[in-house]
Amino acid sequence: MDGLDEQPTLREKAYESFTRHLLARDVRPGQFVSQRRLVELTGLTLGAIRELIPRLEAEGLIKTVPQRGLQIAHIDLNLIREAFQLRVFLEKEAVALFTRSASDETIASLLKRHRDIAEAINSGNNSHELELHAQAVDWGMHDAFIDALGNTIISNVYRVNSIKMRLISQERFRIDGRVGPVMGEHLKVLEAIERRSPEDAVGALVAHINHARDRALRL
Q: Residues of the signal sequence (predicted)?
């Protein structure tokens, strides 16, 4: 029984370790890696890595290329289009529900974080630290919308797509130099939520996501 209890934990450790290294760019999109390299990277056993690979393949984060080995997900135009399309489908419903159900305190907190960043930008703060903070606030807002659904299946799908979105962001565009415009787009969404207008919130959110998609496709 002890062994059965430990196995899921070990598999989760392997998954979390891999995705952490992937987002830290210790392995890069399109790169070929061996199972031994993944062992070295994660510090886990070869058995754990072999159990991990089918999950990564199913989620599209890695694929087996005959005679070449394991390849990290490659960022191409098809992946960008599909990832953004899925994001729109999921977040439209999420933001509509969030607009109706979020507490005034939650909305006020999100607005304050964004307005504080916007004010810092207007005051001439263009520091890397502010950009990192803005990126975290950016992801946090979108995560809050999905969390409001309270749907584990959707959350799991969104989590995998979010990893791909962050890889796209790293490869194609970053928030660097665009903190002001991005915060402005977010504030339009949040101000519509504050008015409790699902239609306006959805419209502003879709426009925001489509702007990001178009920038990624142009690059």
A: none
